[in-house]
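Example record

One chain of 293 residues, shown exactly as stored in the release files.
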Amino acid sequence: MKEKRVKIPERFNYAEMYLTLRCNFKCPYCINNNDGRGIKTRRRKEINAEQWANALNKIQFGKIPLTIGGGEPTLHAGFFELLDRLRPDIKVDLLTNLQFDIGEFMKRTRPERFTMSSAPAYRAIRVSYHVGQSSPIDLIEKVEKLQERGYSVGIFGLDIPQFVNENMRLMEMAVDKRIFFFPKNFLGVWNGQLYGTYKYPSGLSGKREEVSCRTREILVDPSGEIYRCHRDLYKAENPVGNILNPELKIEDQFRPCANFGECNPCDVKLKTNFYLDGVSCQVEIIDKKTNNP
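Predicted structure tokens for this chain:
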């Protein structure tokens, strides 16, 4: 009997699997640590490659790529094994800081394993540049080698207010080598000032309110727990399911939330999609007092 596939709701536009929350960087501006509990919440149980693959191979992703992220996902012991075990029709996006042996990477993977979209601004392997953590020259050289081998790859520079000039210099280096570069807006508070553009700025007020919300993405932590938002994922609170559940269903619905005001900026911001051709917000919020957005 043919195995029944789990469908991702039609309205969803993003699916990210956090293989690990461990990272080999120690950025003082890391948004994943903005709750002050970053070290504690990064230490999660990590399911193995076989468990990930068995669960993911049951999912019908449709038009959505399977995004593998972290932390730094290549730190997971089963990173390459997972890529080998995934159904061939599942195309992968990778979020990485590229601080690994790309020689081994090119030996153990093929460009076709990753999403090969014809959209001009799309890159399947999205390399993050974090000032003070990686060498710009080393990063450019690695991306250039991957690009020469046919991988869909680009550099995404985080526009930290203190390091705008460093980010611009890397952009100039990338353009000179014909490497795709995209500056990502810094989100959150820096030196007392809030950065970013938000659909729901009151979600960052620090004053908790009860609302109803629904998401357009599936976020899965290293243990397989499914969360509706980054806030809950990073704090390991309020999972809505587990990817290892044999009766897994991914539902598109409003759910009550008592933590609006403590949102993660990633959830309430206005963002470009992964094709960089549109702006939207990943969550929809309804005020429980007025039943209005």
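Notes: Residues 34-40 have pLDDT under 50 and may be disordered.
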